[in-house]
Amino acid sequence: MQKKRIGILTSGGDCPGLNAVIRGVVKAADKLHWEVIGFIDGFEGLLPPGDYRILDRASTSHIMSMGGTILGTTNKGHFVSKVGVGEKAVVAPEIVEKARSLVEKLRIEGLIVVGGDGSLTTAQQLFEAGFPIVGVPKTIDNDLEATAMTFGFDSAVASVVDALDRLQTTGTSHKRVMVLEVMGRHAGWIALYGGLAGGANVILVPEIPFHYDKLAEFIKHRDYAGKLSTLVVVAEGAKPEGGQEVYQEQSKVGESRLGGMGDVVAREITARTGKETRTCVLGHLQRGGAPTTLDRILGTRFGVMAVQLIEDNKFGQMVSYQNYLVLGVPIADAVNRLRHVTPDSQMVATARAVDICFGD
Ligand code: F6P
Fold this sequence. Notes:
By secondary structure, the chain is of the alpha/beta class. It folds into 2 domains: about 5-150 and about 290-335, Rossmann fold; about 155-290, 3-Layer(aba) Sandwich (Rossmann fold). It is about 35% helix and about 20% strand. It has helices at about 20-30, 95-105, 115-130, 155-175, 190-195, 210-225, 260-275, 295-310, 330-335, 345-355, and strands spanning about 5-10, 35-40, 50-55, 80-85, 85-90, 110-115, 135, 175-180, 200-205, 230-235, 245-250, 255-260, 275-280, 315-320, 325-330. Strand 11 (about 245-250) and strand 12 form a beta hairpin. Helix 1 (about 20-30) crosses helix 8 (about 295-310), helix 4 (about 155-175) crosses helix 5 (about 190-195) and helix 6 packs across helix 7. The model has no long low-confidence stretch (mean pLDDT about 95). Bound molecules: 6-O-phosphono-beta-D-fructofuranose (F6P). 6-O-phosphono-beta-D-fructofuranose binds near residues 13, 116, 141 and 183.
């Protein structure tokens, strides 16, 4: 009797915790005497002749603490199904058929897709085309609906906090305004959580359009009060009231790259307050390095539950973290509905209660 065989691929931007998912999948599958195939570079590995390798306990040993993904990933290629906010593209039928031929040839009875909004949109298309898909939500941005948290987020926030701790010492010593631009795309979760935990004085998020005048007024007031340095966290997707987001690169394939708002804010602060201001763009440091404890645990739980969903034939579902439990929800409910920071949430109110200014 041939062993049941399942596949796994990681797609979209990498993030800490992906290897914990892979390890969790392999261990849970091994207990069921299933074989696991890891596809290389996301969905691209599904294209004939196929780029894949067998994953077993030995090849996935000691990977949990490693950042990135041992399988490689891409947010470009033949399977891109997201070309901007809310804009979907359809994966070409001939590409779907090529992937199908490989999945059938390899006798894959369940395919675990670990990805964010874009990759899960592709996963849903493949599920609708008849592939035995199970999803695992991943993104440092924490902006997916239908799960209270994605793994990778906590690790990204930890690097923001570390950066703020470091920037604070220069800010205080030189009496400067220190601006830290963080990732998160069109959601302000990384900025909000990182800023709160890192002692930021100002947090600018996409969900709360800000006013430069209010920002300048706040910084001047701090000066009068003898607080001569100010820590400002700017989400890459933040924008002033009536203004636009700043992009580093507009892309025709996949999502355009945000970036540069930190510098714009810093220039405006100097112009309006006369304060010496410096910008630091944290960039991909937020996506690298070892996952935090929480991300290792969440990743492991997600991987184990993904195998469970296959065992229960719950295809078209993705794992989801809700009320301390990991369970399955339809992928269709999770994609194309980004989860945003709610301006009147308790989290924002808590930040305001500890004197954090949102520039509104
Ligand atoms: O979605 C994760 C993310 O890190 C975003 O926060 C960021 O805007 C984007 O990916 C960067 O993408 P890339 O690695 O393609 O530059």
